[in-house]
Amino acid sequence: MNYRHAFHAGNFADVVKHTILTRILAYLMRKDAGFRVIDTHAGVGLYDLLGDEAGRTGEWREGIARLMVAKLCSADAELIAPYLAAVNAQNAQGELRYYPGSPFIARHMLRAQDRLMALELHPADAEALKENFAGDIQTRITQLDGWAAMGTHLPPKEKRGLVLVDPPFEIKGEFERMVQALAKAHARWPGGIYAFWYPIKDPKDVSAYVDSLRASGITKILRLELTIRAPSFPPRLHGTGMIVVNPPFVLEGEMRKLLPKLAEVLSDEGRGRYHIEWVRGES
Ligand code: SAM
């Protein structure tokens, strides 16, 4: 387990991933009934963009820093507002120093009746995450294998909510593991919303992944992707993807508005592209 999210916090992939996360939560908040967010690969929760790791790569400068100063039309600004509110909540007014990871963003949006369960396997990161949420009775942090938790913690007692799966993709076979984990989780809780993040490096890996999802028998699978440059050889990260199972019915339309703008803001010289596709529809 060498992956450290601190090097990548706030990069273009985080911006897209966390925008989708906030749009799903905004939808769940339309009803008063409580929901649960299960964040299976949570990271440490909060990142210092001027710290050693983020400072070394500076990836956030091409991600969240660009979005913070982007000119958005009022409809886009309204959709992006919950995400930017979660970022701003960690920073002094007008500044960008700290970046909230997925558990902090989710927690920012919870109401009194909602709960967050965050899992992190790396001992030091799990400890840091626990410290970041010390005393918070709406959040449970566990040092546990997020893949295993999907078998044991579903369905949540609220019977409404989101499972966010954001593994580091540092070992081979992660795409196959995603399909197996989704099949297992979906069998236990067919009505849950699932958001599975994936990196776009080699388009062949992504095609095989999508083919396996299509063959899985699971329906209502939405594919959302954004690339910021053309693929290169040897493959390096040039795009970010999210598979959303049982997406809120408004999500496709919202992302059809937001992804073109994010593609423009997060890429150089208009090289950004987006792709939205139903891998499987209702049936
Ligand atoms: N979701 C976070 C966010 O959006 O801010 C970033 C997560 S980062 C991409 C992946 C995290 O998964 C790392 O912190 C890593 O230590 C952790 N991890 C790796 N394998 C894991 C496993 N089997 N179970 C839970 N966490 C794991």
Brief overview:
40% of the residues lie in helices and 19% in strands. The protein has 283 residues and is an alpha/beta fold.
The number of helical segments is 10
The helix fraction, in percent, is 25-40%
Rg (CA only): 17 Å
Number of strands: 10
Tell me the major beta sheet. 8 strands, mixed
Order of helices and strands: HEEHHHEHEHEHEHEHEEHE
Mean pLDDT: 96
Taking pLDDT < 50 over at least 5 consecutive residues as the criterion, the unreliable ranges are: none
Cross-sheet strand order for the largest sheet: 5-4-1-6-7-9-8-10
| Ions and ligands | S-adenosylmethionine
Terminal-residue CA separation:
39 Å
Percent of residues in beta strands: 15-25%
Structural class, from helix and strand content? alpha/beta
Could you describe the 3D structure shown?
α4 packs across α10. The chain has 10 helices and 10 strands. It is globular, with a radius of gyration of 17 Å. With 283 residues, the protein is α/β, with parallel strands linked by helices. The termini are far apart. Helices cover 40% and strands 19% of the residues. The strands form 2 sheets. Strands 5-4-1-6-7-9-8-10 form an 8-stranded mixed sheet, with helices on both faces. Bound molecules: S-adenosylmethionine (SAM). The site of S-adenosylmethionine has 20 residues, from α7.
